[in-house]
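Model it.
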Amino acid sequence: MDDSAALEIQGLRKSYWTPEGARQVVIDLPAFRLEARQQVAMSGESGSGKTTLLNLIAGISTPDSGSIRVGGHEMTSLSESARDRLRATTIGYIFQTFNLLQGYTCLENVLLGMSFGPGADRAVAVGLLERVGLGARLRHYPRQLSSGQQQRVAVARALANRPRLVLADEPTGNLDQRNARESLSLIREVCRESGAALLLVSHDPGVLSGFDVVEPLEQLNRAGGV
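Modeled.
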């Protein structure tokens, strides 16, 4: 495998037990590669395995078999604590539901995300929030922000540790059309500026149409999702 790639997958397989006691294969991905700084969208309907795949890449879930290399590091052979450290320093994850901590301000959410990596840096966190247009809302709590503004906090948090790879799970799914368009443009622009590769998954044709490279998960994944 080539360590220069932002992400390289070989023979990845993940299955779950159904309530009926059968083994349901969700991911059966022979190969996938994302180059450094490349931006790729992965299409797939609900239930196709998109979120499962991103969670495997991020080390949140573990596969049954196969290899996932992120920035040259083999994710699948690491302990849980080592996967957490690699994720904190190498991967930025933008969740569809934002996953902001409601009891913390915008600035604190970003600083907490940084604390799991190289360490919290207030100047960097403030600069990122200013970059995404929230310089005047550093002390606001998520409940005091619109959905679009909450997404911007999530983008700042995902980029705070200068990751090599950014994963975005239906990042515009909870936004109206205008905020969705602005959020997508912001994610892509900030990734370009920071030199991060981007893997975004979506079922929205409007989102997918903006990418030069769109990979249909249903065609890549022999399992066909769930």
